[in-house]
Design goal:
By secondary structure, this protein is an alpha/beta fold. The protein has 6 helices and 13 strands.
């Protein structure tokens, strides 16, 4: 039977990870391992200066005192007796599109699965109210089945964003590229109760490239966005130019 590791960055108690795990468990052998708190924005960070502690919960899930990347690494290396076949991360409470993917713990968990040699998917629900995790869960099952049937390249993961709509209102699935945002807005400066200055991260920038073909455009128009992401960050098209640049130093 196909074994699937489910993780996330919103925390092991988040509604998205439960919806995803329950939907996949109808078809596959599922292990659910997530951080013991919300780790949104953790990106690919690892815990290096503290030990990782696990807690087996009553529903069978495992919580980890670490980041999403820690969860996937620990699960594959230590918690799984038989290595999983696929890693699925999500369902994230909010979009992971465009520039956001660089910061996303959801995407990072999927990337860690790929770093360890496994096919991987990150899935997010996009909207303000986030009412339809069941829709994203159904889409996840479809994408997983497709990935099992026709695997993708070994250096890629799939980043899936689902509009927060009833399943029957989804117009289809589009393969997209990442869009882009304008420069992020400034920090929010305020005072703590003791009168000391503190800062909060400001709102993200508005969409700059949300043209047809992007993940932003697809989701805004009622389509599921599926974006293949490569984990090799090398800009291969620049190698020859860079060699000439270096020779002139």
């Amino acid at each position: 039977m196909i074994r699937i590791l489910v993780s996330n960055d919103d925390g092991v108690g988040a509604p998205g990870i439960a919806a995803l795990s329950e939907a996949l468990a109808q078809h596959y052998d599922v292990m659910t391992v997530g951080p013991d708190r919300n780790c949104s924005g953790a990106s690919n960070s690892l815990t290096l200066t503290n030990p990782l502690r696990i807690n087996k919960l009553g529903n069978g899930y495992v919580s980890v005192s670490g980041t999403p990347t820690d969860c996937v690494h620990l699960a594959i290396r230590e918690l799984y007796h038989d290595e999983p076949n696929i890693v699925v991360s999500g369902i994230n409470a909010g979009a992971n599109m465009g520039d956001d993917t660089l910061y996303s713990g959801t995407v990072a968990a999927a990337m860690e699965g790929r770093f360890l040699g496994l096919p991987a998917i990150a899935i997010s629900l996009v909207g303000k109210e986030l009412l339809h995790y069941d829709t994203a869960a159904k889409i996840a099952c479809k994408v997983v089945a497709g990935l099992i049937d026709k695997p993708i390249a070994n250096d890629q993961i799939l980043n899936v964003n689902v509009p927060d709509l009833p399943f029957e209102e989804i117009k289809g699935i589009k393969v997209t590229r990442l869009g882009a945002r304008h420069r992020a807005e400034g920090m929010v400066r305020t005072l703590d109760p003791a009168g000391r200055e503190i800062f909060w991260l400001g709102p993200p920038g508005e969409e700059q490239d949300a043209s047809e073909g992007t993940d932003f455009h697809a989701v805004a128009n009622g389509y599921v966005s599926v974006t293949p992401l490569t984990v090799d960050l090398t800009a291969y098209e620049q190698l020859s130019t860079m060699k000439q640049w270096i020779e002139q130093l």
